[in-house]
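Late entry, written up from scratch paper. The run itself happened at the end of the previous shift, but nothing got recorded in the book at the time, so transcribing now.
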Amino acid sequence: MEMPKYLWQVTYSPSGAAGLQQEGGTARRDAITRMVESIGGTVESCHFALGGHDMFVIGNLPDDVAAAALSIRTAAAGAARSESITLLTPEQIDEAVKRPTDYRAPGK
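Output as recorded:
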């Protein structure tokens, strides 16, 4: 079974931005890759960005508990805020729309 895929939207704190300025982008990418691999995952891509978030990382993790562990470690360090988003394939959406559910819209 394929590992779940995640998108992490990262925003640096002032101290995190200062650390990035000191280390550079490749060192930061390598540190993130080591962190994700240490919990059994892989990093597919890592991109710095302009706008509302400073970095976007796409990777695979064994499960949501691993994602929570990374989120807690990142938050505790205080240098960045990371938002984890689970990504689904088109095939997973095909499966989801075929799954029966008992739903009633409000007021119906």
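Strands lie at 5-12, 42-48, 55-60, 80-87.
(Scratch paper discarded after transcription.)
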